[in-house]
Amino acid sequence: MKDIDIYELAGNVLSSITSDLNESIYSELNGKLSLAWSPDPSVNAWAKSEGTIDEPPIHKICINYELVRQLYRDIEAFCEYLESDLDKGAFDFWFQDFEQPIEMLPSIFTSEAHRKNTFIAAITWVFFHELGHLKQEHGYIRSKFLNYQVDLISECNIEDSRLIEGKAAAIYHVTEMAADFEAVDTCISELIRHFSGEDLKAAIYLFVCGVSSTLYRFHGDKSLILDNVPGGNHPNPLTRLENIIPQIYEFLSISDLHQHIGIVLDRKRILGICNQAATAAGLFWLRCRTEKPEIPDNYFLMGNLNRANGKEYLCKIVETWDEIEPEIKALRRFGHYYGVLQFSQHTRDSIFSKRKE
Ligand SMILES: [Zn+2]
Questions:
Q1: How remote is the CA of residue 247 from the centroid of ligand 1, in Å?
Q2: Tens digit of pLDDT for each residue in 101-140?
Q3: How far is the CA of 174 from the centre of ligand 1 (A)?
Q4: What is the dihedral of CA 59, 157, 208, 339, to 10 degrees?
Q5: pLDDT, tens digit, for every residue of 216-233?
Q6: Which of 80, 218, 275, 347 is spaced 20 to 30 A from 32 at the CA atom?
Q7: How far is CA 210 from CA 60, 122, 135, in A?
Q8: Ligand 1 centroid from CA 63, angstroms
Q9: How far is the CA of 133 from the centre of ligand 1 (A)?
Q10: In the chain, where are the structural domains located?
């Protein structure tokens, strides 16, 4: 696909979503959602809420052309990598426990559809992540709890991001995780609307490939080691994936949902689909960074609680979320219940028992 075709496809998809949201939600609220495109050469997207929180929402999302171009090129290279079977031995070894192996790329779709569907999944996820920031008024929340004005929510690691630490970093990280949660909730609902049966399972697989690839791209070359406290403006991709993958398989395991969509999604199978897609994207990114990758400890998904420093890190995150959640719920003007970040009782108990040690 030529660059111009990538911009056109992204433009059509995101403009259509923006129009739908204006017609269905923003008009009811007397507000407006606008989508802008920027020629800025960075891989970035940002969100801005104009006006005050007492007024109808005037929300703006800006996407850089370079972001969509780069995401497509990443996904194209990732699909080529999977087609090449370069790491087949490693994948066969890691995923040998599955009774029914999951294809590295679902043969139910053509090679062109792999690229296109994964790309659309990735850009819609970015868009709904930005909308998640706006829906929960994270600019207002960050300004209020940090005592300085935050006008723009940006996905790029701003130059002085390393200076963000302590409470500020915890607020940044947890609001990113909350926006991830909103995005996953909306995207999974969209996938259910568009696909059914085996196509749906394949689309979920490609969705996780697309989101994982996007998170690694945003993170760039920085370390993936989890510090015991949040630092900088974004959590690392593994931390973010450990947050949203359980969200995906928990949501898709709800039996009422199965009745609604007319198929039963086996929980173990969905977990396998998600893990394999995220792991494949992780190994691909490792390969992009170094020719002969040695897989570091803690590189793949194991649950944030099981990760070195995971409990200390999550303790700060959960405490911060509990502090800001009531206000976020009061500000949130639309969206499903399932889109609001939540931590399981198991997570809370594990953190609490760690504290008592
Ligand atoms: Zn964000």
A1: 18
A2: 889 999 999 999 999 999 999 999 999 999 999 999 999 9
A3: 10
A4: -40
A5: 999 988 888 888 899 989
A6: 218
A7: 24, 5, 23
A8: 12
A9: 7
A10: 85-356
